[in-house]
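Input record, target 12 of the design panel.
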């Protein structure tokens, strides 16, 4: 009797371990895809921030030059 039930338990354990392995693999794939998405989104965002900062600095410089030109005495 004991030998007859052993393969059933062994098969159930193998199936359980296989299913757990697949679940872990799916979680790792999901984490990898999420990291790739975040990395892909960060690059254009960084460029946009750099461009915006440069634009603000140029605008401020032009404003200062305009104010300086209007205040400076004309010869």
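The sequence produced for target 12 reads:
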């Amino acid at each position: 009797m004991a030998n007859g039930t052993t393969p059933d338990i062994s098969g159930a354990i193998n199936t359980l371990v296989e299913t757990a392995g697949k679940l872990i693999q799916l979680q790792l794939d999901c984490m990898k895809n999420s990291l790739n998405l975040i990395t892909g989104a960060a690059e254009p965002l960084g460029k946009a921030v750099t461009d915006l900062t440069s634009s603000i600095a140029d605008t401020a410089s032009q404003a200062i030059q305009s104010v300086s030109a209007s205040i400076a005495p004309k010869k």
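Residues 57 and 63 are 10 Å apart (CA to CA).
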